[in-house]
Amino acid sequence: MIEEQAQVVEVRESNLIIEASRQSACGKCGQKSDCGQSAIAQWAASKMVNISVARPVNMPVSVGDTVLVGVDEKSFVKASVLLYFVPLVAMFIAGYMVTALGAVEWKVILSSFATLIGSFFVIKLISQKMASDSVYQLQVLRVVSS
């Protein structure tokens, strides 16, 4: 289970709105004072992200509580592979197949790009089905502090 702490900012009938800050590994790096990435990471870390999660029925939660939320590691990896790896593989396969058919370079590039764009639409459809599956949704695990 991949876990993260978040603060409850709104309690609704069926869900909670939680606020999680973006975090970076720059805080642990010895070179952060000399690195441009650190400045960008500090700016991004100051931005908060509001996320809607299902309200747990077996635990009382109120505004201001810090909760521990989590998502299953296996489903996170599956979603990541679908989002990042599948489009690249589809693009390379399309390029290889068109090259094997003897197409000129611009046709290979065009077909690879078209396949990449097409794979994004297919992934959108698949991800909409995945979004309704509770395995792929954040779950409130426990209240850390009130």
Care to describe what's here?
With 146 residues, this protein is α+β, with helices and mostly antiparallel strands. The chain has one domain. The chain is built from 3 helices and 5 strands. It has helices at residues 36-45, 73-100, 105-131; strands at 2-11, 15-21, 48-54, 66-71, 139-145. The chain has a 5-stranded antiparallel sheet. Strand 1 (2-11) and strand 2 form a beta hairpin. The radius of gyration is 21 Å and the shape is elongated.
User: In which order are the strands of the major sheet placed?
Assistant: 3-2-1-4-5
Q: State the shape.
A: elongated
User: Total number of helical segments?
Assistant: 3
Distance between the termini: 23 Å
Question: Average pLDDT, to the nearest integer?
Answer: 85
> Would you identify the regions where 5 or more consecutive residues have pLDDT less than 50?
none
Strand content: 25-35%
Backbone CA Rg = 21 Å
Helix content: 40-55%
What's the structural domain tally?
1
Query: Mind summarizing the main beta sheet?
Result: 5 strands, antiparallel
The helix/strand series, from N terminus to C terminus, equals EEHEEHHE
User: Based on DSSP secondary structure assignment, what is the total number of beta strands?
Assistant: 5
The helix-and-strand class reads: alpha+beta
